[in-house]
Amino acid sequence: MRWRSDIDAGVQLCLHCRKLHPLERQRCDRCGSHLFQRKPHAVIKTFSLALSALLLLIPANLLPMMVVHSLVGNDAGTIMDGVIYFLEHGEAWIGIVIFIASVFVPFFKVTTLFYLLFIVYFRLRDKAHGGLRLYRIIHFIGKWSMLDIFVVALMVGVVQFKNLATIVTGPAAVAFMLAVVATMFATEAFDTRLMFDHETQRSTHG
Q: Per residue of the chain (206 residues), what is the pLDDT tens digit?
């Protein structure tokens, strides 16, 4: 099935106020924003930011995220070490929250972004609708991405309140924070319409 796109119709949509304009317009006559049929350099921006996030997740998971000071001594642990620590000390819900927010969600977002770029690069238009659903999921998650950054700090407060141990954040926190921010920007940089463009359009607007 071949649909008629905005490129076929010779119009462009303002991404801020959603008003359609003729192709020759440079600015939106409603909100004054610059008009583009596709987000400029969407593919390269998304790829660069997603790759940066992936690289940052390596030290974020390998370097100490939490330094635990307890009665039995001091121990610096990674994110997974922290998850295991809470599981072994009867605080399974804390370990599960940290694993989901700090391990599963960041890697899920990065993997999804690369999959969307894969659809665009290889022009897999039959995968576009599924890709759009995945994009909506990570875009929704992105609204809560700052929780990924503060989840460890929140758990630190809970643990200290219960007098289980004294915990401070480790050097991995910086890499983790930058990775989350990179995935947020990568998600915003991606243009989902590229997945639906026809081959003749891709060479000009991809």
A: 466 778 888 899 998 898 999 988 999 999 999 998 999 999 999 999 999 999 999 999 999 887 767 666 677 778 888 788 778 888 898 788 888 888 899 999 999 999 999 999 999 999 999 999 999 999 998 777 666 566 656 656 665 555 556 777 788 888 998 999 999 999 999 999 999 987 545 444 44
CB-based burial of residue 187 (10 Å sphere; 0-12 exposed, 13-18 middle, 19+ buried)?
A: buried
- For residue 47, CA distances in Å to 27, 43, 79 come to 27, 6, 26
C-alpha to C-alpha distance for 172 and 197, rounded to whole angstroms: 40
In the numeric block, the tokens 């642990």 are attached to: 77
Query: Burial letters for 121-146: b for 16+ Cβ neighbours within 10 Å, e otherwise?
Result: eebebebbeebbebbeebbebbeebe
Max Cα distance, the chain (Å) = 71
* Residue type at 134 in one-letter notation: L
Residues 6+ apart with CB under 8 A from 89: 164
Query: What is the enclosing helix (H) or strand (E) of 12?
Result: strand 11-13
Tokens of 50: 């997603």
